[in-house]
Amino acid sequence: MLVGVGLGPGDPELLTLRAVRLLGEAAAVFVPGNLAYDLVKPYRPDAVVLNFPMTSDEDYIRRCMEENADRIAPHAEDGLTVFGIIGDPNFYSTFSRLCEMISKRHPEITFATEPGISSITAFASVANVPVAGGFLVSDGNGPESRIFMKVRKPAALAASLSEEGYSEFVLVERMFMLEQRVYRGDDLPEKSDYFSILFARRPHA
């Protein structure tokens, strides 16, 4: 199994307890560059640094992805392997693209992710900026997804969003609590707990 582990915004002390535990338990640890290595070094000095180029050359990126996928795969086939990445592995990260490549070349490998403190939440702390109400996060592209917190009527909200072109919905209720539940697609309940988050996404163009 390959687990993408969030390393937080740039301070080794901001790794989660679970991240530190997984780094210690993994048979092998890989990171995308020296900045990520500096974060895992206190916990896993034998981590392997891989090359993930910051370039717009898609052919070169693809070749590097293929090489990295083939290098990671033998370890992930045999046991727990960690890919540590700055921030969170599901937010604007290299990990999802790496998983796509590994799935094509090594379909027997399974994946999981562990969250890390993202730059979005870390910014508010560093800048001392309290955030409330709705806000937009973008990497420069137009928004294709929306996240709603404290959703009390998820089915009705999803029906309304469908009229705006959204077709993929995921509701997580009481996340990381004993009563955690995940609903997808048309399975959304009429009412949900105060501690609920709804994710909505438009189809890719």
Automatic annotation (TrEMBL):
Residues 1-138 form the Tetrapyrrole methylase domain. Pfam families: TP_methylase. GO terms for molecular function: precorrin-2 C20-methyltransferase activity. Gene3D superfamilies: Cobalt-precorrin-4 Transmethylase, Domain 1, Methyltransferase, Cobalt-precorrin-4 Transmethylase, Domain 2. One of its GO terms (biological process) is methylation. PROSITE patterns: SUMT_1. Signal peptide: none annotated. Belongs to the precorrin methyltransferase family. NCBIfam families: PRK05576.1-3 (NF004060). This is Cobalt-precorrin-2 C(20)-methyltransferase. It comes from Methanoculleus sediminis.
